[in-house]
Structure formats: C-alpha cells, structure tokens
C-alpha cells in the first residue's frame, strides 16, 4: 500500500506541514510507503 499526502499550504514548516509529517511518521512505522506532494 502507498499513501500520498497532498500539502496545498504555501508555508513550508507551517501547521499543515507539521501535521502531515506527524501523521505520515505514524503511518511509516506501520511499514506503509508514503509520499508528500
């Protein structure tokens, strides 16, 4: 399984970016491949 996260926020390091990083970190620990666009 592969999960793609789409971050539409223009602010790198903003709240949306931090939230996506946290969620994807949890998903990666479960051996699921992720990619952020």
From TrEMBL:
Against InterPro entries, the record matches this protein to: Flavoprotein-like_sf, FMN_Rdtase-like_dom
SUPFAM superfamilies recorded for this chain?
Answer: Flavoproteins (SSF52218)
- The NADPH-dependent FMN reductase-like domain extends over 1-37
Q: Pfam families per the record?
A: FMN_red
Any one Gene Ontology MF annotation carried by this entry is: oxidoreductase activity
Know the name of this protein? NADPH-dependent FMN reductase-like domain-containing protein
Give the species: marine sediment metagenome
């Amino acid at each position: 399984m592969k999960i793609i996260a789409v971050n539409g926020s223009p602010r790198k390091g903003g709240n949306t970016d931090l939230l996506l990083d946290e969620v994807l970190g949890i998903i990666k620990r479960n051996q699921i491949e992720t990619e952020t666009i």
